[in-house]
């Protein structure tokens, strides 16, 4: 079989050259399409279901939220395991699928099952799916350098401007904000005043909820003009909250400021984000979507940051806290350097021992073709270019070179012996 293949190749050199050139071009295109990352994605094929129920203890969350979700998500096809975790005010359910299951098919099936499982949850509790990222999807961390802005203003800028802009970048699944203070209206109720004015607690809760909303009216025409009637009720400042009516006392309206104190403050924090011991900062974590090219996504995010930075107030600037692109580029450059070094070394060795430039050319040609064809196989098996796969290619270059030298030297020796016999 080997003799026939060698004989066919020698008799049809043009076909062999065309096939080699075709595989090389195909490999170059596969190399450009293959996702590049620093580390291999060994995380499980999972879908995260997140549920928030503020103020409830972990035991209540476990009994009324986590357990109903876990018990109803176990019947989904291709599910290996369902794990649940309950904590104060939050529930996490991890649905682990088999490796061959498509992640977006899995998310669709989980969403279908949640439509039924939500009926078993307490009123007002709505579960949601986590981002379509993986355990190694945190590709970029950044924080803000803002002189003259407090942490609350920086967090508001991050949540309502920067985050939305960066989420439009292709390949970005989520931009998670961290640090600072999330602004909120805080109402501190005086129980003695509630008792004096005879205002129930539920009246205050309903009044605050119902008085932060615009309402619609109807359209009427007057003097050939159409007018739309609507009621403006959104809260804009602390005074709007203080003037909300919560009841009446002796036919006199009781306002919220009569029974409570309203102030602007920050939400409860479970941790802070510190920069090298220099103080708190506000920033975000860019999470890459499943199966995307990490290097391309990072470059696109950085380009978007430059556009967003032009619209930031004052001297506010981005500062990168963690960037995986450096490790990715170093891994790629390492393979390139190894290839170049081995090509030069092989050329020198073959020329010194054989004094035959065509023999050296044969070995030099097979190395880039073999490497290009390896990326075809990487794409076929759904593997990315990372430290592990690129290191394997770098190690395989040595094997390719060794085989090439042995085969060329053997062929050169046999041809030389045959020529000597012919001369005799």
What does this structure look like?
Helices cover 50% and strands 22% of the residues. It is α+β, with helices and mostly antiparallel strands and 424 residues long. The protein folds into three domains: 2-38 and 328-423, Multidrug efflux transporter AcrB transmembrane domain (Multidrug efflux transporter AcrB transmembrane fold, Up-down Bundle); 44-133, Alpha-Beta Plaits; 183-266, Multidrug efflux transporter AcrB TolC docking domain, DN and DC subdomains. Strands 2-3-1-4 form a four-stranded antiparallel β-sheet. Strands 6-13-5-14 form a four-stranded antiparallel β-sheet. Strands 7-12 form a two-stranded antiparallel ribbon. The chain is elongated, with a radius of gyration of 33 Å.
Looking at this protein, list some descriptive labels.
424 residues, alpha+beta, Multidrug efflux transporter AcrB transmembrane fold, Alpha-Beta Plaits, Multidrug efflux transporter AcrB TolC docking domain, DN and DC subdomains, 3 domains, four-stranded antiparallel beta sheet, 13 helices, elongated
Assigned CATH class of the largest domain: Mainly Alpha
Overall morphology: elongated
CATH fourth-tier homologous superfamily of the largest domain: Multidrug efflux transporter AcrB transmembrane domain
The residue ranges in which pLDDT falls below 50 over 5 or more consecutive positions are none
The CATH topology of the largest domain corresponds to Multidrug efflux transporter AcrB transmembrane fold
Distance between the termini: 32 Å
- Largest sheet properties: 4 strands, antiparallel
What is the correct CATH architecture of the largest domain? Up-down Bundle
Roughly how much helix do the residues carry, as a percent range?
40-55%
- What is the SS-derived class? alpha+beta
Helix tally equals: 13
Radius of gyration: 33 Å
Provide mean pLDDT, rounded. 85
Order of helices and strands: HHEHEEHEEHEEHHEEHEEHEEHEHHH
């Amino acid at each position: 079989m080997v003799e026939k293949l060698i004989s066919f190749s020698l008799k049809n050199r043009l076909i062999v050259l065309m096939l080699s050139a075709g595989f090389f071009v195909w490999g170059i295109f596969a190399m450009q399409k293959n996702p590049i990352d620093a580390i291999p994605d060994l995380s499980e094929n999972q879908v995260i279901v997140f549920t928030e129920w503020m103020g409830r203890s972990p035991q209540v969350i476990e009994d009324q939220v986590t357990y109903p979700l876990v018990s109803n998500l176990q019947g989904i096809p291709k599910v290996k395991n369902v794990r649940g975790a309950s904590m104060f005010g939050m529930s996490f359910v991890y649905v682990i699928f088999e490796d061959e299951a498509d992640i977006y098919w899995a998310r669709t099936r989980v969403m279908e099952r949640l439509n039924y499982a939500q009926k078993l949850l307490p009123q007002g509790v709505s579960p949601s799916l986590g981002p379509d990222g993986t355990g190694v999807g945190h590709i970029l961390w950044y924080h803000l350098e803002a002189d003259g802005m407090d942490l609350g203003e920086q967090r508001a800028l991050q949540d309502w401007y920067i985050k939305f802009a960066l989420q439009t970048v292709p390949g970005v699944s989520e931009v998670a904000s961290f640090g600072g203070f999330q602004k909120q209206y805080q109402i501190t109720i005086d129980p003695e005043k509630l008792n004096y004015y005879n205002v129930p607690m539920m009246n205050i809760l309903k009044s605050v909820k119902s008085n932060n909303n615009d309402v619609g009216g109807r359209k009427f025409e007057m003097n050939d003009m159409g007018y739309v009637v609507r009621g403006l009720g959104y809260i804009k400042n602390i005074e709007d909250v203080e003037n909300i009516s919560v009841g009446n006392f002796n036919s006199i309206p009781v306002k919220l400021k009569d029974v409570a104190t309203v102030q602007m403050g920050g939400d409860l924090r479970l941790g802070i984000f510190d920069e090298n011991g220099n103080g708190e900062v506000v920033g975000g974590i860019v999470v890459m979507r499943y199966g995307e090219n990490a290097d391309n996504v990072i470059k696109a995010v950085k380009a978007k940051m430059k556009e967003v930075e032009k619209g930031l107030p004052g001297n506010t600037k981005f500062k990168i806290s963690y960037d995986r692109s450096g490790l990715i580029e170093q891994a790629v450059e390492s393979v390139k350097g190894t290839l170049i070094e081995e090509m030069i070394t092989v050329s020198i060795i073959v020329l010194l021992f054989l004094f035959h430039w065509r023999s050296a050319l044969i070995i030099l040609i097979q190395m880039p073709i073999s490497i290009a064809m390896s990326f075809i196989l990487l794409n076929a098996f759904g593997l990315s270019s990372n430290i592990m796969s690129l290191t394997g290619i770098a190690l395989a270059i040595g094997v390719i070179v060794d085989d090439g030298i042995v085969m060329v030297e053997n062929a050169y020796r046999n041809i030389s012996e045959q020529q000597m016999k012919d001369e005799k």
